[in-house]
Amino acid sequence: NKITDEGIRRLIQLHTLNASFNEKITDEGIRCLIQLHTLNASHNKKITNKGIKHLQLKILNASDNSGITDEGIRHLMQLYKLNASFNEKITDMGIRYLMQLHTLDASYNEKITDEGIKHLQLHKLDISYNTKITDEGIKHMQLHTLDISHNTKITDEGIKHQGTNVPIAKLHTLNASRNNNITDEGIKHLQLHTLDASWNNNITDEGIKHLQLHTLDASWNNNITDEGIKHMQLHALYASYNKKITDE
To answer: Where does the UniProt annotation place the signal sequence (predicted)?
Structure first.
């Protein structure tokens, strides 16, 4: 990649920068980009707390970048979207100050736990491969999009209607792939438009039959069959290695 600090430092009107995998872009290059609101610094450890601390970022991808830590993000009070996957230098202590945060990717980062997210008003949450976030952490949230693939600490109890509390029935998109603790019982009262039930044989025709799905992934799940989908008005269907969904 031939884009370096020298090339970007004069772009003082720049508002979006992708510096992923490009360590020729460093703290020195971005420090003068005062208009910058979107930064992808993933896989680039030459961008650190020092470079971002004076920026007014709204969107930050710090995936697999241990140079960006709690100390760096706690000053980003306007941050709207954060990717902290594969970065255990971003923990509960850092995200607790981000009261404007709308979207959080905490996948593969077990330093972000129930304690860190409980006061946030998140809209989209990815906690795949993060078993430190459990039913307790999400049960009072009003999420729109939730990825709990490969996270068996999220169960039906976490996603279904919570008695007199505000329900998670506003949930629009759910990825329950490879999470067999999500079953028909958990999803049947949700108002889902998009469901990934791949590799999850505990989601069956019985669970999906009352849903008004637009998109369904039933790959590697032979408990979802022609019978379950026949009345659906699907826009997209993924059925790889599912012998129970046929052309009929």
So the answer is: none
Residue 163: the pLDDT is 34
Q: Which domain holds residue 206?
A: 134-248
Nearest to 140 by CA among 163, 156, 124: 163
- Taking a C-beta distance cutoff of 8 angstroms, is the pair 123, 145 a contact? yes
**Backbone φ and ψ of 56, nearest 5°:** -105, 60
- Contact of 31 with 52, CB cutoff 8 Å: no
Q: What pTM was estimated for this model as a whole?
A: 0.94
Q: How far apart, in whole angstroms, are the C-alpha atoms of residue 59 and residue 9? A: 20
| pLDDT tens-digit readout, 150-159 | 999 999 999 9
Task: Tell whether 227 and 143 lie within a shared domain.
Answer: yes
User: What confidence tens digit (pLDDT) does each residue in 202-221 have?
Assistant: 999 999 998 999 999 999 99
Determine, yes or no, domain membership for 169. yes
